[in-house]
Amino acid sequence: MDQRKLGRNGPNVSAIGLGCMGMSEFYGASDERQSIATIHRALELGVNFLDTADMYGVGKNEELVGRAIRDRRDKVVLATKFGNVRGNKGEFLGVNGRPEYVKQACDASLKRLGVEHIDLYYQHRVDPNTPIEDTVGAMAELVRQGKVRFLGLSEAAPATIRRASAVHSIAALQTEYSLWSRDPEQEILDTCRSLGIGFVAYSPLGRGFLTGRFKTQDDIPQDDWRRHHPRFEGENFERNLHLAEAVRQLAEEIGCTPAQLALAWALGQGKDIVPIPGTKHTRYLEENLGALKVHLTQEHLHRLDEVFPIGATAGARYHEQGMRGVNL
Fold first, then answer.
1. Which residues pair with 200 in a beta bridge?
2. Which residue of 84, 115, 139, 194 pairs with 55 in a disulfide if CB–CB is 3.0 to 4.6 A?
3. What are phi and psi of 54, to 5 degrees?
4. Integer CA distances (angstroms), 269 to 105, 163, 301, in order
C-alpha cells in the first residue's frame, strides 16, 4: 500500500483511507457484522487510516470502530472529530468549541473507542462563538497529556487555518473535495501547503454520485440522507447526471470503473492529498483501492477539467443550515 505523510510533521497513512460514517448512519440501513468485516479487510489490504466522529450515529460509529480494531490497534491511524453536538435522539444542538467541551468530548471519544489515545483529532466544525485560538489551545493540551497525537481541522477557512496553526501544529485539514466539489482549489489548498498541512478529502466520490450508481432518484433508498441533499434533488439531480456520464465514458476508455477514475483524479492532485471514500461493503473497498493502479494522462486530466470546472455541479454542498457551518 502506498503511503502519504499528513503534514510536515504528521503521521504516515495509507494513500487511501476509509471513511466509516455510513456504517452507522445517513446512508441507509446498517449492518455491524458487514461493517466490521469491511474494516478488517481494509487493514488486511494495508489501509491503516480510519475516519470516524463522535456525531456519527450519536457515538455508535466510534463504538463500532473501537470494536473492530480492539485486537489490532497497532495497525491503525485512528482519526475522530468533535464539535458537532447532538442530543440523545439525534437532534442537532449546534457547534461547540469551548475549551471545557473539547476535553469532555475527547474523554468521551476515548471511552467509546476503547483506546488510550487518538492519533488525529479534528475539530469537526469551527465554532463561530469561540476564538479558534481557545479551541486549539485546549486541543494542544490533549496532546501534552498524551490523549491525542496530532491535531486537525475540518471545513475551516484559510484565515482560521492560519490562526490555528499559530497556536499549535496542524497535521491535516479535512474538507469535501472531488471532481464535483473543487472549491478548495481556490485558496484552501494553497493555504495548507504554505503551512505544511496535509489535506484529507472527504466524499471524493461525490457522495457516490460519480460512481454512476444513481440513474434516477428512485435508486436512492428511502432511508438514505442523500434523498434530501441539494445535489440529489429535482432538477439538480437531472443536471448532474451528465457529469456522472462523463466520468463513466472516460473510465470505460481507460479500462477502470468510474469510482477508480474519480479517486485517481483526487490522488493525482498532489502527494499531500489523502482521499477517504466511505463504504460498508468489502467489494466497494477493494474496487476503490484499484484506483492506485490507474494512470491518468495529461489528456485525461484536460478532459476532466473541461467537464468539471469549479461551479459545474448543480446544487449546494449542503442545505442552508449546513452551508452556514463550512469555510468559517
1. 174, 274
2. 84
3. -70, -20
4. 34, 25, 10
Q: Are 290 and 40 in contact (CB under 8 A)?
A: no
**Calpha distance 202→176 (Å, rounded):** 5
Residue of 6, 20, 5 lying closest to 276 (CA atoms): 20
Say how many residues make up the chain: 328
Average pLDDT (288-308) is 96
Separation CA 296–CA 299 (nearest Å): 8
Mean local confidence (pLDDT), 103-109: 98
248 vs 256: CA distance, rounded Å: 9
Lookup: cell for 76: 491503525
Q: For the whole prediction, is pTM greater than 0.85?
A: yes
For residues 118 and 77, what is the distance between their CA atoms, to the nearest angstrom? 8
Q: At what angle do helices 234-254 and 258-267 cross, to 10 degrees?
A: 90
Query: Which residues are known to be catalytic?
Result: 56
